[in-house]
Write a structure and sequence with these properties.
Length: about 270
């Protein structure tokens, strides 16, 4: 377990409001966060890793099929009262910046912001929480080439983030964002304030929260933390589900109640389509 005493209490916000249309037909009646990876829902992999790292204050922003997500969390995490949900009523018409707005009052002091489709292990979280302090720390990984769907990152010579965008050119790109950010003290307040300002503009309803990170990066407020060598996987397509099962096949859950809750969810998801 990670010792977070030097940081103070750390909380996590997980953005899981979307349906995951690129995974249809698997997500026709089941949100992406409940799809099983080696028998365990995506959201359970995330929360279990957070609990293993000592983070018990977890807010999950939900939307599509909210009742199914709430039922799973209520049963599986009955012994963890700080695992809770926030409903985003705009999930069908807005992007994840709106989900951040829904949970903005949770964005205080030290918190992690997670995409609801990124799997990772507790070791990766320890690496992030032990990284050199910065107002905002963006987790990045590296590979030989980046495709158009990657959230690309441009770094300066000292490893600070200059830009985050899917439209960076190959020459501008040094890394990719994995969908996990740590906000620390000043960075938490700056991000919360920026989200508040952005959603005053109706045109920003379709924006990603990383547009805010890109803006703050230009003020030299965003450092990068390499998670190269740690296990993680972003799930956007069916092939990603297969890859995630290969990566996480040998890891277990955190409670006996998990198996009962997972079985209930698995009844609603066809694993034969994967």
């Amino acid at each position: 377990m990670t010792d977070n005493k030097s940081l103070g209490p750390v909380k996590a916000i997980v953005l899981s409001a979307g349906q995951g249309r690129r995974l249809l037909p698997l997500t026709e009646n089941t949100p992406k966060c409940l799809l099983p990876v080696f028998g365990k829902p995506v959201i359970a992999w995330q929360i279990d890793a957070l609990l293993q790292a000592g983070i018990e204050d977890v807010t999950v922003v939900v939307g599509f099929q909210v009742g199914k997500v709430e039922a799973l969390l209520a049963e599986r995490y009955a012994d963890y009262p700080q695992v809770k949900t926030r409903f985003n009523p705009f999930f069908e018409v807005a992007d994840n910046l709106a989900s951040c707005w829904i949970a903005r009052d949770e964005m205080t002091d030290n918190f992690l912001l997670l995409n609801g489709d990124t799997l990772f292990d507790a070791g990766l979280l320890s690496r992030v929480l032990e990284a050199e302090r910065a107002p905002i720390t963006l987790c990045v990984d590296f590979k030989e080439a980046y495709d158009e769907d990657d959230m690309k990152v441009q770094l300066d010579a000292d490893g600070w983030v200059r830009h985050v965008s899917k439209v960076l050119t190959a020459e501008q790109t040094n890394a990719e964002s994995i969908g996990l950010i740590h906000f620390h003290e000043q960075g938490a307040q700056l991000f919360q304030d920026a989200v508040e300002r952005a959603l005053r503009d109706p045109a920003k309803l379709k924006s990603w929260y990383l547009t805010i990170i890109d803006m703050l990066a230009q003020q030299r407020l965003v450092n990068a933390c390499s998670v190269q060598g740690f296990k993680w996987c972003e799930i956007d397509f069916i092939d990603d589900l297969r890859r995630s099962e290969t990566l996480f096949a040998l890891q277990g859950g955190v409670s006996k109640k998990a198996n009962q809750a997972e079985s209930a969810v698995s009844d609603n998801v066809s694993s034969t389509a994967i």
